[in-house]
Design goal:
Elements: E1 17-26, H1 31-41, E2 46-55, E3 60-69, H2 71-83, E4 87-92, E5 99-110, H3 113-125, E6 129-133, E7 137-144, H4 146-156, E8 161-166, E9 170-173, E10 182-185
Antiparallel strand pairs: 1-3, 1-4, 2-3, 4-10, 5-7, 5-8, 5-9, 6-7
């Protein structure tokens, strides 16, 4: 007797990937809760979330979300975000040719002697700015890609890294055109 199934073989497992999504939303109470609720209700994870008002006259805010999932899940997230009433525009930033993504972080390093000298040398290489210094500690400010922030963090761990505070990913398009990436919906 054969162990082969008469049913079609299961679909090949899709690879998970990280994606940055930008949303322009009405700046009103409860909007962020609705966006985050969409993720939690469906079991989607948010790796990074930043939000701030960007147009005071129109009362609009920009929400930048980094999430992960299979391509089909990521597409569903974008489509579901676009259906929320307070969402004016949704765009996929990741992979867009004009997209620029950055994150800012503060690092506290407590060190003495050679470790202190090495921490200052590495900060200079990474172009981190010293924003506070004492006899036993530094606080460095670093802006760059997520990978750059992660690399700096890993190098500072053995040198006395005690605390990290990160903003989350911010994004904007290069060039003169306004935009938030690959637009999925407009509704100004």
């Amino acid at each position: 007797m054969s162990n082969t199934s008469v049913y079609a073989p299961s679909a090949k497992q899709e690879e998970r990937e990280s994606q940055t999504i930008a949303c322009i939303v009405d700046n009103e109470p409860g909007v962020l809760a609705r966006v985050v609720g969409l993720f939690s209700a469906r079991g989607y994870n948010i790796e990074s979330l930043t939000v701030a008002e960007t147009d005071e006259a129109k009362h609009r805010s920009r929400i930048t979300i980094v999430t992960d999932g299979t391509p089909s899940i990521l597409e569903q997230i974008v489509l579901q975000l676009a259906r929320l009433v307070p969402v004016r525009r949704v765009g996929v930033v990741t992979g867009h040719p004009q997209a620029l993504e950055r994150e800012m972080a503060l690092f506290k390093v407590v060190a003495e002697g050679e470790k202190r000298v090495e921490a200052a040398r590495l900060a200079d290489i990474f172009r981190a700015k010293v924003v506070d210094v004492s006899n036993t500690s530094f606080i460095f400010e670093l802006t760059g890609t997520r990978e750059k922030i992660d690399a700096f963090r890993e190098l500072m761990k053995p040198l006395g890294l005690t605390d990290v505070s990160r903003t989350g990913v911010l994004s904007i398009n290069r060039g003169p055109e306004e935009g938030i990436g690959d637009r999925r919906r407009t509704g100004d």
